[in-house]
Design brief:
Strand order of the largest sheet: 2-1-3-4-5-11
Strand content: 15-25%
Number of strands: 11
Oligomer: single chain
Helix content: 25-40%
Shape: elongated
CATH topology of the largest domain: Rossmann fold
Order of helices and strands: EHEHEHEHEHEHEEEEHEH
CATH class of the largest domain: Alpha Beta
Distance between the termini: 24 Å
Number of helices: 8
Radius of gyration: 18 Å
Largest sheet: 6 strands, parallel
Bound molecules: NADPH dihydro-nicotinamide-adenine-dinucleotide phosphate, ligand LZUJQKHR
Length: 241
């Protein structure tokens, strides 16, 4: 596949390495300069890992050009619905995931199952904590928001999530975000009662898991003939079916 990288920072560069190992070609390495439309038009698929304020424009430009696009950029989801509508109108192909790593997608499943199990045990309250490197632009992380939304789907006590955690009322799921140099991404959920604590945690040791998942999703979307908005769950079904 000829891949356009929209965003050539920490993730763009890691994705490049994995894509080359998988025999793909990089036709565009786009950074914060005006989009190189000529090179983009030459791509089979685009992978956006940029910054919150650039993601909408990057994705919609790809949809306008009929290029399948996957996005891992976080912090722009107030415009997700608009992108879904545009994907429908343009009969395009699009995937967003707050986290493309296999490990975190397994952790998403574990989180939902634990939330289901705990929903009727009112003596436990939930805390969510994420830790990332100090260059991260958004807080809380996209992954933390996905985890919180899945808990809210199961547990009627929580009607929204709140960041920072110390401002949460009893019906808001508190999210704590810490920034520590070089941390790739840690997410922890704790169910606390006066008697005990039950915790689950995912720790990313490198960015390779995010990048491999993104390249696999791009390969999957490129080979998908039907237009639509897809999820990482759809991609992973292919491997577990
Ligand atoms: N979904 C997932 O699995 C994961 C998601 N992420 C998310 O991916 C995003 C990128 O992360 P990361 O690589 O660490 O961040 P970096 O800051 O390292 O890289 C961001 C890149 O985007 C570039 N950029 C800025 N404006 C534009 C634009 N208009 N068009 C294209 N590129 C632009 C920057 O260019 P310049 O250097 O010139 O400023 C920079 O190269 C973040 O939102 C992060 O949360 C990260 C890891 C995993
Ligand atoms: O910015 C990062 O680095 C990461 N961002 C994603 C998020 O916001 O959830 C995924 C991963 O945790 C790394």
């Amino acid at each position: 596949m000829r891949i356009a990288l929209l965003g050539y920072g920490k993730m763009g560069k890691t994705i490049e390495q994995i894509a080359l190992q998988r025999k793909h070609t990089i036709v565009l390495k786009q950074s914060a300069t005006p989009m190189d439309i000529t090179k983009l038009q030459n791509a089979d698929v685009a992978i956006d890992f940029s910054i919150p304020k650039a993601a909408f424009n990057n994705i919609s430009t790809c949809l306008d050009l009929n290029i399948p696009v996957i996005s891992g950029t976080t912090g722009w989801l107030d415009q997700y619905h608009e992108i879904c509508e545009l994907t429908k109108t343009k009969k395009g192909r699009f995937i967003y995931a707050s986290n493309f790593s296999l490990g975190v997608n397994l952790f998403f499943e574990l989180n939902s199952k634990l939330a289901q199990l705990m929903a009727n045990f009112k003596e436990y309250s939930v805390d969510l904590e994420e830790i990332h490197h100090t260059e991260k632009l958004d807080a809380p992380s996209g992954t933390a928001i996905t985890l919180a939304e899945a808990i809210m789907d199961e547990n009627e006590r929580y009607i929204s999530w709140k960041y920072p955690a110390n401002e949460a009322n009893k019906n808001q799921l508190p999210i704590e975000a810490k920034r520590i140099e070089d941390v790739k991404g840690t997410h922890q959920i704790a169910y606390k009662s006066n008697i005990d604590t039950i915790e689950i945690k995912h720790t990313a040791h490198t960015r390779d898991g995010f990048a491999l998942g993104a390249v696999i999703a791009a390969e999957w979307l490129y080979n998908k003939s039907n237009p639509g908005v897809y999820l990482m769950k759809d991609v992973l079904k292919t491997f577990t079916a």
